[in-house]
Amino acid sequence: MNYRRVGKAGLKISEIGLGSWLTYGGSVDTKQSEYIIQEAVDCGVNFLDLADVYSHGKAEEVVGRAIKDHLRSDLVISSKLFWPMSENINDRGLSRKHIMESVEKSLKRIGTDYLDIYFCHRFDPETEVEETVRAMDDLIRQGKILYWGTSDWSAAQIERAVGEAHFYKTYPPIVEQPGYNMLARHIEPEILPICARNGMGLTVYSPLAQGLLTGKYNDATPSDSRGATTSWLEHSLTEANLEKTRKLSDLARSLDITLSQLALAWVLNHTEVSSAIIGATSIDHVKENSAAVDIELPSETLETIENIIDNDPDER
Fold first, then answer.
1. pLDDT value at position 221?
2. What secondary structure does DSSP assign to the chain, as a single string?
3. Strand 175-177 versus strand 273-278 pairing type
4. Structurally, how many domains does the chain consist of?
5. Using CA atoms, how far apart are residues 40 and 23, in angstroms rounded to an integer?
6. CA 20 to chain centre
7. Cα–Cα dist 95/124, whole Å
8. Phi, psi at 275, each rounded to 5°
9. Is residue 288 part of a domain?
10. What are the tens digits of pLDDT across the range 113-154?
11. What is the pLDDT of residues 219-261, one digit of tens each?
């Protein structure tokens, strides 16, 4: 495994991170989840990405049980808050009240004294940024979190948070977590340069486009797949994208690697990215995806990929 700094922070995380959205505490049973998490750690993965809303708290509980015998300092554990967790009108958003109460619940579910990174899962238009920034700063000073970050915030929102933190002399966010993959490159024009300018890293989710960039949809939609059982892929599971994944699969075979490894290596080729978060549902997925960190894509391969995906946002 290789490790990268999170922006300009001293924190280092594995180039492949393990996420828990829709998996641990959800579609994958507890015992299998524990095997997968153990395999990830054995492969050198130190970054485990959670959120309170994942399986409504169960993901935090399952991962917490899986890591209870590991040395806490060997792991980088993140969680997130924003989405409603109950009918309580204050049990949502990024208010000071919700932040202070949510972190305690997440810590209890995971069974840890602190989070390495605490993400604001979305921007909250109903809470002043100053309130959120000050609350995160207080949690850092209390030792309950070590760093904080944003997730799916716009470039302007990220700049505002950084600006407020500098103005009030509080700890600024060190990381943004957006979706990013070969088929979804919206972060390139503004988010990437904004983060680089402010010394922030990126831990990107859906580097495999929720399974589309594994090639499993190339011939048909598996009945037990996310494309068949959810609406998450309804806008990306198109014939145009499938034609691209088929060509990318051919390219990967010519390089003697899998499409998943090609897609992850492409994401990690961007130096602004600190970690690509995978959502493994088996030990084999962990082994296959972890091997992507050792793949270097030459310039001619990158050019071939660009010609296939044909979606450079800077040219549109």
1. 58
2. --EEESTTSS-EEESEEEE-TTTBTTTB-HHHHHHHHHHHHHTT--EEE--TTGGGGHHHHHHHHHTTTS-GGG-EEEEEE-S--SS-TTSSTT-HHHHHHHHHHHHHHHT-S-EEEEEE-S--TTS-HHHHHHHHHHHHHHTSEEEEEEES--HHHHHHHHHHHHHTT-PPP-EEE-B-BTTB-TTTTTHHHHHHHTT-EEEEB-TTGGGGGGTTTSS---TTSHHHH-STTTTT--HHHHHHHHHHHHHHHHTTS-HHHHHHHHHHTSTTEEEEEE--SSHHHHHHHHGGGG----HHHHHHHHHHH---GGG-
3. unpaired
4. 1
5. 14
6. 9
7. 8
8. -155, 145
9. yes
10. 999 999 999 999 999 999 999 999 999 999 999 999 999 999
11. 655 545 454 445 567 677 778 888 999 999 999 999 999 999 9
List the structure tokens of 40. 């990830």
Residue span of the structural domain in which 70 resides: 3-209+263-294
**Nearest by Cα to 6 from 294, 280, 271, 279:** 271
- Phi/psi-derived region of residue 54, left when phi > 0, alpha when psi is between -120 and 50, beta in every other case: beta
Q: List residues with catalytic annotation.
A: 54
Which is it for strands 76-81 and 115-120: parallel, antiparallel or unpaired? parallel
End-to-end CA distance of the chain: give it in Å, rounded: 36
94 occurs within a structural domain: yes
CATH number of 60's domain = 3.20.20.100
Angle (CA) 16-260-210 rounded to 5° is 85
With a CB cutoff of 8 Å and minimum separation 6, the contacts of 238 are: none
* 220 found inside a domain: no
d(CA 244, CA 103) in angstroms, rounded, equals 42
Residue 304 lies in a domain: no
Contact 98, 90 (CB under 8 A): yes
pLDDT digits over 140-199, tens only? 999 999 999 999 999 999 999 999 999 999 999 999 999 999 999 999 999 999 999 999
